Amino acid sequence: MRIVDPLDEVAGALDPLTAVYEAAGPYLARLDDLPVLDNAALPQLDDLDGPLPEAGLGGSVTTERLVRIGMAAATQSSGPHFYHFVIGGSTPAAMAGDWLTSLLDQNAAMRASSEFANRVETVAIRWLIELLDLPPSWGGALVGSATFGNFTGLACAAHWWGEQHGVDITAQGLSGLPRMPVLSSGYVHASARKALQMLGHGKDIVEVFAADPVGRVDLAAMEARLVALGQPAVIIGNAGEVNAGDFDPIDALADLAERYGAWLHVDGAFGAFAACSRRSAHLVRGMERAQSIAADAHKWLNVPYESGFALLADPTRLARAFGMPGAPYLPDASSPAGGYMMFGPESSRRARAIPIWATLSAYGRDGYRALVERHLDLAAELARLVDEAPDLERLAEVPLCIVCFRLAPEGVPADELDDLNRRLGAALLADGRVFAGTTIYAGQVALRPAMTNWRITARDVHQFVDVVREIGARVSQS
User: Fold this and answer.
1) Is there a smaller number of Cβ atoms within 10 Å at the N or the C end of the chain?
2) Rounded distance, CA 277 to CA 292, Å?
3) Which H helix or E strand runs over 121?
4) Is the pLDDT of residue 83 over 70?
5) What is the pLDDT of residues 219-243, one digit of tens each?
6) SS3 162
């Protein structure tokens, strides 16, 4: 039996990389014209299955198989026709940075493991703070997603809250403490609840103060609750609600937090990047007065998955919440050889700062301002097309990059529209040319296409509406 050992492939180590490189050019050249999903290619995924090989196939054969199946059956979410979730793409510089990240394979845990990765991360975090127009005294940590950004920010909030009760949660945990009050509008996202769930507070701890079925915050009710509590609380502000792109009034929430001594955490998964343009910066006014912010880089920053970050007004709190118990071979948070493993939930860490540094270096503040403003214009264009179509109905204003609308053909009874739009969403995903699944907005089933991919153009927006109306007509007739 032939045994394939990695050492046997040293001489041909470039062959698998060359195969990917040679496939990349044609793939990227046609990405703008590819459907999001070719359902007919999905049976090819069976070729990846089977028992673990006893005798390896070797890097070249394996890579050829992955490239062939991946190019056919992958979801083309990095292209300009994927609107289903708030997903960015990979700018050319970010993609190159990500390839280099895999090539160098740095453990970004600490300076002792990679001075290079540590320095890149330090600069990338500072540039993110500058991009979002936050005070230079802020700091942060790079994490895998906005969910982990929420986890990191809310963990620091919990440690702050414990201090208000004279308890060091790091050492003593939550035992014996009352439940931590957490207040938010109806825009609170499931990822914030998941973070609280993982932190041991429970997903249902959030008290929601909504003034209407959409979820807009009831400030008066929230303030009355803060008065009644008479103790420190955590407020979650939402910068960019996922159904229509709406925002909590962050400035007003910051006023409440200052008035009642609360911790303000802003979930800005994609909406934080409204700060990049003067046209949208008013939506995040007051974000600089928060204590913590969570956001995704793999959304509007357009870097590859997985990439998120947490930013803190007092970055020293990160080490207090995430410093590891002593191990004789590891530096502690104060050691010159220490690093970001002490400032976030992960210890061994991929050098995810490299793509962030690369894209910010390549395109700068002006490039990202132009990117955000292009998407603002495209969202406005999509809203115009929806408003002009006799069979479509827009359900919300468009403050940022999401357009919430539904199919509403003349003659269809109102009580049948939810079912019609569910079938439309399913048919869109089955068709595969464009992706835009359904949501519930103010009790109504709707589509909520989001534009954060750098490749999207006006042509793509018009094609999207054409496909929706074509399939909508077919679904309506059935």
Assistant:
1) N
2) 21
3) helix 115-131
4) yes
5) 999 999 999 999 999 999 999 999 9
6) helix
Nearest-angstrom CA–CA distance, 134 and 153: 16
Q: Note the Cα 100 to chain centre separation in Å.
A: 22
Instruction: Give the three-class secondary structure for 276.
Output: helix
229 close to 181: Cβ distance less than 8 angstroms: yes
CB 182 within 8 A of CB 236: yes
Find, among 435, 444, 419, 445, the residue nearest to 468 by Cα: 435
CA separation for the pair 336, 332 (Å, rounded)? 9
Cβ–Cβ under 8 Å, residues 42 and 73: yes
Give the alpha-carbon dihedral of 28, 33, 38, 42, to 10 degrees.
0
- The three-state secondary structure class of 59 is helix
Instruction: Kindly state the tokens that stand for 465.
Output: 């509406």
Half-sphere exposure of 48 (CA within 13 A, CB side): 15
6 pLDDT higher than 90: no
Q: How far apart are CA 408 and CA 418, in angstroms?
A: 10
Q: How confident is the model at residue 1 (pLDDT cuts 50, 70, 90)?
A: low
Identify whether the C-beta of residue 88 lies closer than 8 Å to the C-beta of residue 80: no
DSSP annotation of 439: E
The per-residue pLDDT for range 111-156, each reduced to its tens digit, is 999 999 999 999 999 999 999 999 999 999 999 999 999 999 999 9
If one counts every other C-beta atom within 10 angstroms of the C-beta of residue 381, the result is 16
Contact in structure between 390 and 410 (CB atoms under 8 Å): yes
d(CA 324, CA 444): 47
Q: Within 13 A of 55's CA, how many CA atoms are on the CB side? A: 3
